[in-house]
């Protein structure tokens, strides 16, 4: 058996601990998802193309890289919650997200007292506001958002695909 020390495999493979390129791909894919900025998608795509041949040869050695690739190449799903952080309805919606733990869904929380940091990072979320002064959730796929929700139970149904 040949020695793989210092090889491409050592750099990209992930066992129990993700490799640096796997983490870089995850971060770039998540930034692309959260911001909608094409530069992050391009950067993630370059990282993925760099690993493609080795991953094809031995996919079992790249679990973290493959999860990041799924985030990059699969459908993007974002949950935008607009409200005051300490509001009971905000806490209920965040608890709903935590309990359902939907795969590959990123959270953007817009604090109505200071919305600038998030709306600057994710311009697609800038038009999202509270309805009737209540914490409001928007579930989006590929930055196309559904109807705003103010009921945590309706949010749960949306997140789980329930009726």
Question: What's the SSE blueprint?
Answer:
Elements: H1 8-12, H2 20-35, H3 38-57, H4 63-73, E1 77-83, H5 88-100, E2 105-111, H6 116-121, E3 136-141, E4 144-145, H7 152-160
Parallel strand pairs: 1-2
Antiparallel strand pairs: 1-3, 3-4
Your description of this structure?
The structure is a single chain. The chain has 163 residues and is α+β, with helices and mostly antiparallel strands. It folds into two domains: 8-73, no CATH class; 77-160, Glutaredoxin, CATH 3.40.30.10. It is 49% helix and 13% strand. The protein has helices at 8-12, 20-35, 38-57, 63-73, 88-100, 116-121, 152-160, and strands at residues 77-83, 105-111, 136-141, 144-145. It has a four-stranded mixed β-sheet, with helices on both faces. Helix 5 links the parallel strand 1 and strand 2 (105-111). The longest helix has 20 residues, at 38-57. The chain is elongated. The termini are far apart. Mean pLDDT is 88; it is low at 1-9.
